[in-house]
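dumping this here before i forget
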Amino acid sequence: MNVFEWSAAELAQKIKAGELSAPEAVEAVIAAIDSKDGTYNCYTSLNKEAALQQAETVQSRISAGEALSPLAGVPIGIKDNICTKGQLTTCASKILTGFKPPYNATVIEKLHAAGMIPLGKLNMDEFAMGSTTETSFYGATKNPWNTDRVPGGSSGGAAAAVAAKEAVVALGSDTGGSIRQPCSFCGVTGLKPTYGAVSRYGLIAYASSLDQIGPIARSAADVAAVFDVIRGKDPKDGTSMTGGRLDLNAVWNAKDVQGKKIGIPEDYFGEGIDPQVAAAVRAAADTLTDLGATVETFSLPIVKYAIPTYYIIACAEACSNLSRFDGIKYGYKSPEAHSLREVYFKSRSEGFGMEVKKRIMLGNFVLSSGYFDAYYKKALQAKGLICQAFDDAFKAYDFLLGPVAPTTALPMGQGLSDPLAMYLGDIYTVMINIAGLPSLALPCGFDTQGMPVGMQLIGRPFEEETILCAGHAFQSVTDYHKQSPVTEKEAL
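structure:
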């Protein structure tokens, strides 16, 4: 049985119709993981027994005729920074070795209520800090299209698992592009929702004003279905809000973008972008034009301030959020610590990886006396200008179109050896988090090396339906999202 022949919604329909059971679907995904994950390293842990038990429960609910979501019975992978009660949640960090939260994140509770089945935890850059999934304590995840390339990050395990058919769908998190960039590199589809559209309760924080949980799948249709399950206001998250409508049928039936006006920031196509990426995104714009949209270019010069603004704000918030990991309450405690001072110093020194330490130090620097006004205050002022620039753009356009990243997937090791280049790779995504906007990443072509190219559709706040409809319409006339890497076993 190959459950990956169907979309998530189709798989749920077959389970509902009795063509297969929820436990059989879970077993099929587990078999795929067992067969492939030695190559790709997408998972940090699996919860096979718990998933099968839950699948039996869900199957009983389905058999009893209980009204569940359109994705009931579908297994789902979870990024390793989203809390799951009694199951390992480590943020791919040594400092959280053995940590099992005493509660579920709100999104996990919503998945349970909808009849979806969390299967295991997906690899990531440590504490979501990175763009390659090479900073993980559990080792790097490999890109299924070419194992010599990175899958992107920080949700690289989630995107790679969907691409390699080790997960039907997955949940990731996006602080500055951490859903969209790995989706672009791995040729899958992912949504960074509006800030506040999905509860962050139970998401281990990196930068609280930027973090957002979102779905990853092979298609915009499946992304919409998962988003519909997890969205909504949560009293446990004071930043969550009741958003706009999401009509799943409208997304699933979208065939065109008739009457929509789309803006392309010309500043997204400046120095540093690979000509093949630029060409693929412009070709996608032509396709959207054929589907009835009016496409125009416009100036967005604030782009050049995106990277410094993001890294100042993100690192400042990170150094505060990560201060709680001290070797005392939970997680790693240095065996060489013999005093309280040594517990703090040695546990954090040994428990955090280099990238995390770097960002904690940068955060402390920009918040320190004498530098706060020069850096952090100016970054907040720049954030206001970025938000205003997008507000002005949306007075003229229904949504925006641009590349996700300036290149396709980088060779393994390149991002770690050249951190500046890795940071600049987020130039098209970080602004979206700063402004709190929704953005859908989806494949739109391939380069001459056969590596996927991704584009993003950027919408107004809480207008996820608009960009999901446009994404589905694009995918109804293209097949980039249907192509998948051929694994060694499948090639035999």
